[in-house]
Amino acid sequence: MRYDVAVIGGGPSGAVAAAILAKAGLSTVLIERNFDNVKPCGGAIPLGLIEEFKIPAELVEKKLSRMKARSPKGRVIDMNMPNGYVGMVRREKFDRYLRVEAERAGAVVVEGLVKSISHSGEGFVINTLNDKVPPLRASRIIGADGANSKTADELHFPPNELKVIAMQQRFKYTPSIQKFSDIVEIWFDGEVSPDFYGWIFPKADHLAIGTGTEDHKHNIKALQKRFVEKIGITDTPYLDEAAKIPMKPRKSFTQEKAILVGDAAGLVTPANGEGIFFAMRSGKLGALAMIEHLKHGTPLKNYEKEFRKLYAPIFFGLEVLQAAYYRNDRLRESFVAICADDDVQRITFDSYLYKKMIPASWPVQMKIFSKNVYHLIKGS
Ligand SMILES: Cc1cc2nc3c(=O)[nH]c(=O)nc-3n(C[C@H](O)[C@H](O)[C@H](O)COP(=O)(O)OP(=O)(O)OC[C@H]3O[C@@H](n4cnc5c(N)ncnc54)[C@H](O)[C@@H]3O)c2cc1C
């Protein structure tokens, strides 16, 4: 049998794409290397995503509308989200749920590690390691296989340029850790991360603590150790996990007969490392473009154009923010000070929750600009 579309990778981007394709009546196979995969991830998702993809309440372990931002000197700013919350999901459950949804929609879901892809006639032949799955034929491919995408390599897409390595440890709640169970903490501190940030994310039965740094520049294990020490936790984690975060879209993530979505395409925003929303949105936009392409002959490039039209300003804005404030502790100190402003908090959370850039009024822009200048000069 030849499938209309093979989706490679059964994380959020691939599972969402496969469900949409199958629902539209296209024969679809979703290939996931390991059904028990536990993707290293903080699992923080915005309310807008929960609403759009109708994520069941039981998957959202915590709904957190309070956050603390902490500066290198220990200044703590309380931030509140009156109009929404950050949802905390656990990836092993979340990804499994999305794959079951894809299967329910009619996709064939198979377990196998894709090791090679070759062109064949009008389409492709996909081979898995040790031929765990017999070679699969498909007219089109969606590569959803994460930051180290085999699909991208095999089909010669331009490289994923900027990768951060991130590490996270999970701690069971104990009396000393329980106090972190209701609030998100973000640490901007060079000792914790010289070019990214550290996070404390509470889940239902554990606390996830993690940090990231640009790949190869610093020792991630040493940064993580220092972070846990600075928080004051002496308990032993029950799980250590680490993975790369690709924080820059590839130069191109569309070809004539194949597209990349999610991390495979490099669709994680700079500054905050948010990838689940963009994985699921790109999975959706990619699948919709694929349906139009196969049914009406429109080019797959439309997917990339649409994605960039919607989200390029957000990627650009966050890239500028990271370049401006994450370079040293003096700048980080100013950044946290600016977070105390109510309008800064409102704009930040409105754009986080629904990914809509709502321009602030002129006086508000002027006020924020002046505060920026003040704190940058003062260094606090
Ligand atoms: C430590 C850490 C913390 C993070 N925290 C957050 C957070 O709190 N919020 C947020 O929004 N984002 C976070 N991210 C980013 C987020 O995890 C990713 O952006 C998101 O998982 C991307 O989804 P995806 O479906 O594109 O790729 P992935 O989730 O990586 O899924 C890819 C899938 O493909 C499979 N696969 C890989 N290779 C093959 C192959 N050859 N054959 C078959 N299958 C294959 C994998 O098993 C996997 O299931 C974090 C990342 C890290 C590393």
Q: What would you say this structure looks like, in words?
A:
By secondary structure, the protein is of the alpha/beta class. It has 3 domains: 2-37 and 91-158 and 250-316, FAD/NAD(P)-binding domain; 44-89 and 162-246, D-Amino Acid Oxidase, Chain A, domain 2; 324-378, no CATH class. The chain is built from 10 helices and 17 strands. The strands form 3 sheets. Strands 1, 2, 8, 9, 10, 11 and 17 form a 7-stranded mixed beta sheet that branches. It is globular. Residues 8-14, 31-34, 37, 39-45, 113-114, 144-146, 150, 166, 168, 210, 243, 245, 262-264, 268, 273-277, 279 line the site of flavin-adenine dinucleotide (FAD).
Approximate shape: globular
User: Could you state the order of secondary-structure elements as H and E?
Assistant: EHEEHEEEEHEEEEHEEEEHEEHHHHH
The hetero molecules present are: flavin-adenine dinucleotide
* DSSP helical segment count: 10
* Helix percentage range: 25-40%
User: What structural class do you assign from the helix and strand content?
Assistant: alpha/beta
Low-confidence stretches: none
Looking at this structure, what is the CATH superfamily of the largest domain? FAD/NAD(P)-binding domain
Please give the CATH architecture of the largest domain.
3-Layer(bba) Sandwich
What's the number of extended β-strand segments?
17
- Major beta-sheet overview: 7 strands, mixed
CATH topology-level name of the largest domain: FAD/NAD(P)-binding domain
- At the first level of CATH, the class of the largest domain is Alpha Beta
N- to C-terminal distance: 64 Å
Nearest-angstrom radius of gyration? 21 Å
* pLDDT averaged residue by residue: 94
**Strand coverage percent:** 25-35%
**Number of individual domains:** 3
